[in-house]
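Q: Please design a sequence for this.
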């Protein structure tokens, strides 16, 4: 299906492909020669998709081309070589004012943040390495379906940096403080079986079954009414934020009333 609002040139510069089939969008990181390493243009392309995607799209699948999901940052970001036509890599941020530097990193984060919006269900289909920014991209999604060869690693601290693409909050929510701290500080590899055991993965399947497993999950999440799914995801996000029981009960009541009003409106139209 054509997507006229999407800037194809912007996606190409970011090494990102977008395919839409009815209510499903599939985003593919498409730089297999460098294991889908990411650059600022990648994050700009992801942000653009989030801003322009049709509201009728209910499910977004994020995947990598080739044998890896994403090996993290493009190595040129650390060497000062030109990246996306601009010199300096990460070091270029230091030439900015504090306000500009903060805004620059916020613009990078925006490429990931929209995947957590309850307006859509988001699914990471992970094969091979998901390192650093790749791990954080998978963490931005609601669900993670892993091939048996998948490996997660939060590599930033080992490189003298910190995870800054929104991955720390979902990681702590999924596995708890102690495990999250150990994984980030040691930068160790977490294989698929452990990911399933500690709650990072929803399922683990053979590599040749990854696409089929994701297709089945997409079909399952499309069965309920769109409004019910959106409201439920928002409720779960509210609960995960640590609100007190009374607040959560009030949020549930309000959501249910909106659903009942929606049913009433549909009945009136029929």
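A: Design:
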């Amino acid at each position: 299906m054509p997507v006229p609002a999407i800037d194809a040139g912007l996606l190409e510069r970011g090494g990102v492909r977008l395919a839409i089939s009815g209510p499903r969008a599939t985003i593919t990181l498409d730089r297999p020669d460098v294991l889908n390493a990411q650059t600022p243009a990648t994050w700009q392309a992801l942000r653009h998709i989030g801003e322009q995607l049709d509201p009728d799209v209910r499910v977004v699948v994020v995947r990598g081309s080739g044998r890896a999901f994403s090996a993290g940052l493009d190595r040129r970001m650390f060497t000062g070589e030109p990246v996306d036509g601009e010199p300096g890599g990460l070091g270029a941020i230091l030439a900015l004012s504090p306000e500009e530097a903060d805004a620059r990193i916020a613009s990078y984060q925006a490429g990931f943040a929209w995947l957590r919006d309850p307006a859509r269900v988001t699914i990471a289909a992970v094969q091979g390495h998901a390192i650093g920014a790749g791990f954080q991209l998978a963490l931005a999604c609601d669900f993670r379906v892993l091939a048996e060869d998948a490996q997660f690693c939060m590599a930033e601290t080992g490189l003298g940096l910190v995870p800054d693409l929104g991955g720390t909050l979902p990681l702590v929510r999924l596995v708890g403080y102690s495990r999250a701290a150990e994984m980030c500080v040691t930068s160790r590899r977490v294989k698929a079986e452990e990911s399933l055991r500690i709650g990072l993965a929803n399922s683990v399947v053979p590599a040749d079954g990854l696409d089929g497993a994701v297709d089945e999950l997409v079909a399952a999440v499309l069965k309920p009414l769109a409004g019910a799914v959106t409201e439920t995801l928002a409720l779960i996000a509210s609960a995960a934020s640590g609100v007190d029981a009374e607040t959560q009960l009030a949020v549930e009541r309000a959501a249910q009333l909106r659903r009942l009003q929606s049913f009433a409106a549909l009945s009136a139209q029929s």
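Q: Thanks. Anything notable?
A: The first helix runs from residue 8 to 14. The longest strand covers residues 16-21.
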